[in-house]
Amino acid sequence: MRSFRIRVQPARASTLALLALAVAGLSGCNSLLSSDNSLLGFITPYRIEVVQGNVLTKEQVALVKPGQSRSQVRDILGSPLLTDTFHADRWDYVFTIRRQGTEPQQRQVVVRFDGDTLKSIEGADALPAERDFVASIDTEKPPRNPRSLAMTPEEIKALPVPEKTAPAASAPEGAVRAYPPLERT
Prior knowledge:
Elements: H1 10-27, E1 50-53, H2 58-62, H3 70-77, E2 82-83, E3 90-98, E4 105-114, E5 117-122, H4 130-137, H5 153-158
Antiparallel strand pairs: 1-3, 2-3, 3-4, 4-5
């Protein structure tokens, strides 16, 4: 059996050393990412916002009552995201949102019909109110030191007292000028 030896030339040895150093350096870049996938805590890669389906809230679903027609339900809730040819009496309203800085959300509401009239709604209990939904997707950060719009009694007492001015002389009533008569006398 024959043995082989690999001879590395000096120019290639420095190239291999640089390559090994680059690989080691790049493998350490992952440790620079924090838990929220930002580099060093302040550089955040852009993530596309994905919104799919119909936003349904408690207020919207409260308007839908059993016995309403399909067109009435569509007017209130919008067109369903999924309609199945094999299950014509079922409409699926699915909503998903992935937005940077907020938790991903997914909701599903199933509307069932008996012919053309609404029979039942499933999954409506888990829907948020409109204000709660807006608050859950809001990524605006509140200011660190919000200003108060009301003054405390101490601040009111510290205000300078306005100077009292002399009352203005009363203006004369009626015409001030005397005009000559229009006719000769």
